[in-house]
Amino acid sequence: MARFAELSPPNRDGIRVADGAAEEIAIETQVSPRVALAKLLQAQEMVNRLPATLAALEAGDIDADRTATMTKQTAVLSDDQAQWVEQRVLERGPRAEGRSSVLSSPPT
């Protein structure tokens, strides 16, 4: 999906995906345009900010739910903070529980 977004760049400032991109994905994947947009933005986030999460997903080390949680939990962080959290979470393994200790001291 991120590759699709890259090949269909937006033609207006302030827009992250091209007009109609979510609708095209929605048709192909048989989900609503809103769900397709969320998945498209998540894919962009993993490619651009969370490459280790993407690699772990592709390797089968984590599932789609865990990648969704990672992108949601790091969305408000800077790139450096997001990568710091990503590294700590992935180090804990595919079934690690409890984020409080992981997030207790991210870099500022």
Automatic annotation (TrEMBL):
InterPro entries: DUF222
Pfam family, one: DUF222
Domain of life from the UniProt record: Bacteria
Domain DUF222: 18-82
Protein name as annotated: DUF222 domain-containing protein
Organism: Kibdelosporangium aridum
